[in-house]
């Protein structure tokens, strides 16, 4: 079987699985799988850029995804009345002072001659800077959080259309990635992994605790939709022309409106995915992509050829993280809410890694295929596990403790299955379903 | 100014909890560092290995409690510990046989092994959730306190109380025994020496007739014992919750790296450094400072540098500082 034929077939199989979901379960479920599959595919492209192209081991995907979500709140929600005059500027000022403190300490570390005076200067700057920062930060935060805490208590956003938030999410993630990359990329691969794992946890901790920013664990609801394309169910159900079209398809108005909204999202996500896929594909084929792979395969040789390895690594780390940020912003838009408590590294970091490895690291189409396949399994393993458990326990007497436990535990089959798939692929087809050319 | 009361408050809220937490981290970090020294990869599944071992201990404890067996004032979990260690040894040896050995024979790159350990992490996490569920489980019994705050106040006549929990004392005692046994094994026995030789220079060790598979097997056995002990002690001290063990991965790795990956002594030092920094930076110092400061100069705020939710940030910050200034860790570790 020729290479393109095999790859097309793989995509057809995954597509058929999703269509089958539509026929056996519901079309809403199928389109939801497609929507999250599209978002996962974008995350996979980002991770594939870092791992497949450059061999960078980033296990902080969750942090960048969460930053994308934060950008949605900061860009698209309306500003809280009185928050800016009440303390917003003070918070910004204190954050700038905090940043200035760190920059000053780094400058002293680099410029001053080494010795005891330098150490004392650094510690002095940091301690004084910290107390000044807290002195300005704390009262301003308190005044923002005091504004109507049941529904607001945060500084709100810029009230811009939500589509602007997607590139903003990318930018926010890119900024964070630049900071991390600047400090951690000179280190060896294992250290980068631990550093990114830590930074992701810290980003989530900040988003959970800084209520003034995006209400923390109180969550932000009612994020506006990209209205012209997506629309709202209630409005659609009252639109006569929409009702006529729904009748023509033979659907009742409620199902038709929910499907229409989801398909609107699918359309937007598909456009973003295609643009990013095209860009990633062009990058892979370009001299820049060849240089990246050369660095990945032999850093020493590439350095001897005059390539600036650390700078190239920083570049691709920032790009890949930005893509994860865009995907995160899209996901928060799809959910319509930001819930920092639900970010879990197993789901948002390691699952994306499974997607990339199973699909084929180094191959963009592989990453996309892996994303759809693994997301489909992630959603469907639970009902499958329940079915399997019901089958296994069908012979047991009703009311037995073991039977109840097994059926209740079926929900946890997911993680087990994902690990099994990852290990099997790594063992028997280490280059993935669609290997790198 | 009341120096004694300040000292007691400091011990009660900072020193005692930090020593117990540091011992738990040190045991965890020893496991990570041994795997790194002998098998040469960062084992992401370590947190979940701890969870698995602790889970067996929880279940054996329940069985013993149901059978009416107890250790009096000591927690029954100590009796369950050997069984848990055995169970965990079986698990890691089976994992090694089925998963890791293949890549060892292939001489796969370390980063591939890290990704493989990610898969193992998923499976172990799934297993633990499947068997015992994702919720909190309590399994500590016996006397809760060795020294009660009220008794201490009555005995010393101070206004500050000092409470020492049984689990904290047990943690420290067990950790000291485990570490002493480990160092005796590594430094005095033939097998331990062959392990250190293998870690130092693989080729030379092979030339001198050391059997690598045996070294690897013994490493896994020791790691399983350490991980289970750490997991059970942590569970006794706080409570058993599978996801928390996964989250311990970060401070454990931070301890191992700060001390110098591959260096057992460094892992212990790193564990205590991380624990003490986490506790001191997230503790509200108002009480201690109120005793120390002169009249009318007492602090008005809580004097808490960071809220406790940011304890990950502390271990991470220390990790970064050490990596930037001393990439091999405080005690010379390996660099691959």
Automatic annotation (TrEMBL), chain A:
InterPro entries: ABC_transp_permease, LivM-like. The keyword Transcription regulation does not apply. Keywords: Cell membrane, Membrane, Transmembrane, Transmembrane helix. Its main location: membrane. Coiled coil: none annotated. GO terms for cellular component: plasma membrane. It is found in: Cell membrane. It is a multi-pass membrane protein. GO terms for molecular function: branched-chain amino acid transmembrane transporter activity. The chain crosses the membrane at residues 7-23, 29-49, 56-75, 87-108, 120-137, 157-179, 191-207, 263-284, 314-334, 346-365. This is Amino acid/amide ABC transporter membrane protein 2, HAAT family. The lineage of its organism: Bacteria, Pseudomonadati, Pseudomonadota, Alphaproteobacteria, Rhodobacterales.
TrEMBL record, chain B:
Keywords: Amino-acid transport, Cell inner membrane, Cell membrane, Membrane, Transmembrane, Transmembrane helix, Transport. Pfam families: BPD_transp_2. It is a multi-pass membrane protein. InterPro entries: ABC_transp_permease, BCAA_transport_permease. GO terms for cellular component: plasma membrane. The keyword Membrane applies. Its main location: membrane. It is found in: Cell membrane. The chain crosses the membrane at residues 20-39, 51-71, 77-99, 111-132, 162-186, 215-236, 305-325. One of its GO terms (molecular function) is L-leucine transmembrane transporter activity. One of its GO terms (biological process) is D-alanine transmembrane transport. Belongs to the binding-protein-dependent transport system permease family. LivHM subfamily. This is Amino acid/amide ABC transporter membrane protein 1, HAAT family. It comes from Ruegeria halocynthiae.
């Amino acid at each position: 079987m020729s290479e393109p034929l095999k790859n097309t077939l793989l995509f057809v199989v995954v597509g058929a699985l999703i269509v089958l979901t539509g026929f056996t379960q519901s079309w809403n479920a199928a389109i939801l799988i497609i929507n999250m599959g599209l978002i996962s595919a974008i995350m996979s492209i980002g991770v594939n850029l870092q791992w497949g192209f450059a061999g960078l081991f980033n296990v902080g995907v969750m942090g960048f995804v969460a930053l994308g979500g934060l950008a949605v709140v900061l860009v698209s929600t309306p500003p809280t009345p009185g928050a800016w005059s009440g303390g917003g500027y003070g918070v910004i000022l204190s954050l700038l002072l905090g940043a200035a403190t760190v920059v000053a300490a780094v400058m002293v570390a680099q410029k001053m001659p080494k010795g005891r005076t330098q150490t004392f200067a650094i510690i002095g700057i940091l301690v004084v800077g910290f107390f000044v920062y807290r002195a300005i930060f704390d009262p301003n935060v308190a005044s923002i959080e005091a504004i109507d805490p049941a529904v607001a208590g945060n500084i709100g956003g810029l009230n811009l259309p939500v589509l602007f938030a997607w590139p903003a999410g990318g930018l926010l993630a890119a900024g964070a990635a630049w900071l991390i990359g600047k400090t951690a990329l000179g280190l060896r691969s294992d250290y980068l992994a631990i550093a990114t794992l830590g930074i992701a946890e810290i980003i989530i901790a900040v988003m959970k605790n800084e209520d003034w920013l995006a209400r923390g664990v109180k969550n932000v609801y009612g994020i506006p939709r990209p209205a012209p394309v997506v629309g709202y169910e209630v409005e659609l159900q009252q639109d006569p022309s929409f009702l006529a079209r729904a009748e023509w398809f033979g659907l009742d108005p409620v199902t038709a409106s929910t499907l229409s909204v989801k398909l609107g999202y699918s359309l937007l996500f598909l456009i973003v995915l295609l643009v990013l896929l095209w860009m990633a594909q062009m990058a892979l084929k370009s001299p820049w992509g060849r240089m990246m792979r050369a660095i990945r395969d032999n850093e020493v040789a590439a350095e001897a050829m005059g390539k600036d390895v650390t700078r190239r690594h920083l570049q691709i780390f920032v790009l890949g993280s930005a893509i994860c940020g865009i995907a995160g912003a899209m996901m928060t838009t799809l959910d319509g809410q930001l819930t920092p408590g639900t970010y879990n590294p197993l789901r948002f970091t390691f699952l994306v890694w499974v997607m990339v490895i199973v699909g084929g690291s180094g191959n963009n189409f592989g990453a996309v295929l892996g994303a759809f396949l693994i997301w489909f399994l992630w959603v469907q393993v639970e009902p499958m596990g329940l079915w399997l458990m019901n089958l296994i326990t069908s012979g047991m007497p009703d009311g037995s403790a073991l039977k109840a436990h097994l059926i209740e535990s079926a929900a946890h089959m997911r993680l087990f299955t994902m690990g099994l798939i990852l290990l099997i692929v790594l063992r028997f087809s280490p280059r993935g379903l669609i290997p790198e050319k | 100014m009341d120096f004694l009361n300040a000292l007691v408050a400091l011990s009660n809220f900072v020193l005692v909890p930090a020593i117990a937490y540091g011992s738990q981290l040190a045991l965890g970090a020893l496991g990570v560092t041994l795997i790194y020294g002998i098998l040469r990869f960062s084992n992401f599944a370590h947190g979940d290995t701890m969870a698995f071992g602790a889970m067996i201990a929880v279940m054996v404890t329940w069985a013993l409690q149901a059978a009416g067996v107890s250790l009096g004032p000591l927690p029954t979990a100590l009796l369950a510990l050997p069984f848990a260690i055995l169970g965990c040894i079986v698990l890691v040896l089976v994992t090694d046989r089925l998963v890791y050995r293949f890549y060892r024979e292939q001489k796969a790159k370390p980063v591939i092994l890290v990704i493989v350990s990610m898969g193992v992490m998923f499976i172990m996490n799934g297993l633990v959730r499947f068997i015992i569920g994702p919720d909190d489980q309590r399994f500590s019994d016996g006397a809760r306190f060795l020294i009660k705050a009220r008794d201490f106040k009555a005995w010393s006549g101070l206004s500050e109380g000092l409470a020492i929990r049984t689990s904290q004392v047990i943690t420290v005692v067990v950790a000291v025994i485990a570490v002493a046994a480990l160092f005796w094994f590594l430094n005095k026995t033939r097998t331990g020496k062959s392990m250190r030789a293998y870690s130092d220079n693989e080729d030379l060790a092979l030339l001198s007739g050391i059997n690598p598979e045996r070294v690897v097997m013994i490493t896994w056995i020791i790691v399983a014992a350490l991980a289970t002990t750490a997991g059970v002690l942590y569970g006794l001290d706080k409570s058993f919750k599978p996801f928390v063990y996964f989250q311990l991965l970060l401070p454990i790795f931070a301890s191992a790296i700060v001390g110098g990956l591959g260096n057992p002594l460094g892992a212990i030092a790193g564990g205590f450094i991380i624990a003490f920094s986490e506790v001191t930076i997230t503790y509200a110092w108002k009480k201690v400072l109120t005793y120390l400061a002169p009249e009318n100069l007492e602090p008005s705020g809580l004097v808490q540098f960071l809220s406790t939710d940011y304890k990950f940030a502390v271990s991470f910050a220390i990790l970064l500082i050490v990596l930037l200034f001393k990439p091999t860790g405080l005690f010379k570790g390996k660099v691959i």
